[in-house]
Each structure stands twice: as C-alpha cells, then as structure tokens.
C-alpha cells in the first residue's frame, strides 16, 4: 500500500481486515506523530478522515485507483518549534543593547498554524484539458499570503480544494462560481471560462474563495455570513504581499475584463450531505481528457436538457386552463 506524505511516498504492508483506525495508527508511528494530530485523505472517497478514526474496514471502499494522503507533523518537528519559541521568549537583553528585530522566517507559531489551518489536499479535475495548469492555479490560491493569513486567524481547515466543471454548474438562469460542501470538507472553484478556452481572473477567483471560506461558519446568506465574508476579503487584501497593484497583469491568470458580482454567485449557501467523488464528469462517467470542442458540445446539450426539464416542471405547476 502506498500513501503520499508531503513530497514522498510511504510504503506499507497490506494487512487483512485492516481498519481506518489501524492504518492511522501505523501512519502515525511511521512519521513519529501522535495519532490525534494526523489526518488521512482518501480520494475519491470517503474523503478527509480525522481523529477519532472509525473502525471501518478499508476493504469496504478501497479500489485499485484509490489514492491516500497523510497529513501530520512529526513530534520532533513540533518539539523543535516549541523549544525555539520558548527560547525566544526567555532571551533577555541588556538595556544598552538595541533590540534585534524578530526574524519573520522563524515564526514557528505561524508555521505550526499553517500546517493545521490549510487545504489538506489539492486536486484538479483530471478529465478536463490541462489539469496541471489547474493544479498550479489551485496551489497559488492555497499559498496566497492573504488567504493563508485569513485561514490562520479564523482557524479554517479545508479537506480538499478542487475545481468545478462549468458545464455542470450552469443553467439558463444562473451559474455557480463556487461550492463549499459540509463546512469545509470540499471547496470547488470555477477556475475556467464558460467556453473552456482559458481561466478566469485570479483576483476574482480569490474573492470567490473568500466567499466559500465564510461557509465554513455560516450556511445561509444572512447578515452574519456577509459580515464574515467582508472581513475575510479585507484580511486577504491587507495581507496581500505578492499580488498588490497590477502585478498580476504579467501572470498567466489575469483577465482585466473578468469581474466579481455577489448577485452572480448563485451557490445557494453552504452545501451539506452526500458523497463527493473527484475525477468524474456527470455526463461522461468514464472519460478523461476531453477536447475543448467535446466539452462545449456536451455543455450545450446539458444546458438544453436542463432548460427542457425546467420548462416541463413549470408546465406541470401551472393550473390547467380547462
């Protein structure tokens, strides 16, 4: 059994009738961490699993294509960060000496928090063209200084950050820009243009991400939700040290004509329940790497079908004229 941990692959012997709890214990021992401090991510399902780990057997859901990711920090690293933080607090300096500015690169508390309050897995949709470009986009969002600062402050932890297929989230009345499933289990973002010929503007998508992060706390689009969303947006802008001004005009994800509109963001609130399966199109269950022309054709058919269903539903609801 292979498990991805950071930038390495860990090898484990298969054990008969092993449970998630048993595997978590072995993983914790492997990296020298407390089992309470690790998480396992099974793709495509059951997704993110945290302590306390269930006694569910792996054989109930593991397939040859299942990917497993381990998230956790070894105890030695935690102790090192704690010791350095404690040492920095104990240091006393004579008044005749000029205080030394703290080295931002050694902010151990921040490093600890960033490993906990983060996106634990990042995956593009493999059946759409150029998935690695989508991965770069998602990684840039996850590593955005403003987003990282907001996640630390509000203690946001997201199991999976992925992209959304525009064809599956567009109707004749609205289009969804993002979705938050089960208060942070999965966040989906509409990275691509409607015609699949490019990507939407970075700052527009980042604002969408702020909106979806707010759904980690509030489900409905009420005053509490909008107040928190505004707060997150301001924190992201205030801590934006990489994308200030118009610097993004030289980046690959810049579109000056792309704008964000709260009224357009038809995610209908945080989404709860159900299973999330990554890497499968609703219209093409077994297909991967569709061409742009095929995707547009399928999107058109999908929209037509949705419009027909909407008209039929409306006709059924209208009272009979006879």
TrEMBL record:
Q: Name the residue ranges with Acidic residues bias.
A: 252-261
A Pfam family of the record is: WLM
Any one GO molecular function term: proteasome binding
Q: What residue spans carry the Low complexity bias annotation?
A: 312-322
Where along the sequence do coiled-coil regions lie? none
Mind telling me which InterPro entries this protein's record contains? WLM_dom
Q: Which residues form the signal peptide?
A: none
- Give the span(s) annotated as Disordered: 243-267, 274-293, 299-322
Domain WLM intervals:
110-305
What's the protein called, per UniProt?
Answer: WLM domain-containing protein
To which species is this protein native? Exophiala dermatitidis (Black yeast-like fungus)
């Amino acid at each position: 059994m292979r498990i991805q941990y950071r930038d390495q692959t860990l090898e484990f012997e298969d054990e008969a009738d092993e449970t998630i709890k048993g595997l978590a214990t072995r993983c914790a021992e492997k990296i020298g961490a407390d089992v309470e401090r690790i998480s396992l991510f099974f793709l495509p399902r059951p997704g993110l699993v945290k302590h306390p780990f269930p006694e569910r057997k792996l054989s109930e859901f593991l397939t040859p294509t299942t990917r497993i990711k381990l998230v956790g920090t070894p105890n030695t690293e935690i102790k090192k960060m704690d010791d350095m933080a404690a040492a920095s607090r104990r240091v006393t300096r004579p008044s005749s000496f000029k205080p030394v500015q703290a080295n931002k690169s050694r902010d151990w508390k921040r490093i600890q928090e960033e490993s906990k309050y983060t996106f634990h897995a990042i995956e593009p949709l493999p059946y759409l063209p150029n998935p690695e470009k989508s991965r770069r986009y998602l990684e840039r969002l996850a590593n955005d200084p403003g987003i990282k600062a907001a996640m630390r402050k509000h203690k946001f932890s997201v199991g999976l950050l992925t992209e959304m297929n525009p064809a599956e989230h567009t109707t004749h009345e609205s289009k969804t820009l993002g979705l938050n499933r089960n208060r942070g289990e999965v966040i989906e973002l509409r990275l691509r243009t409607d015609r699949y010929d490019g990507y939407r503007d970075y700052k527009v998508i980042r604002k969408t991400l702020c909106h979806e992060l707010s759904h980690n706390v509030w489900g409905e689009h009420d005053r509490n939700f909008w107040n928190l969303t505004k707060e997150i947006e301001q924190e992201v802008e205030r801590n934006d040290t990489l994308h200030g001004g118009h610097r993004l005009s030289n980046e690959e994800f810049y579109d000056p004509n792309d704008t964000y509109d709260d009224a357009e963001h038809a995610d209908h609130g945080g989404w709860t329940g159900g299973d999330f399966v990554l890497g499968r199109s609703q219209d093409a269950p077994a297909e991967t790497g569709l061409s742009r022309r095929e995707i547009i054709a399928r999107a058109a058919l999908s929209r037509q079908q949705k419009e027909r269903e909407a008209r039929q539903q409306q006709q059924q609801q209208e009272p009979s004229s006879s």
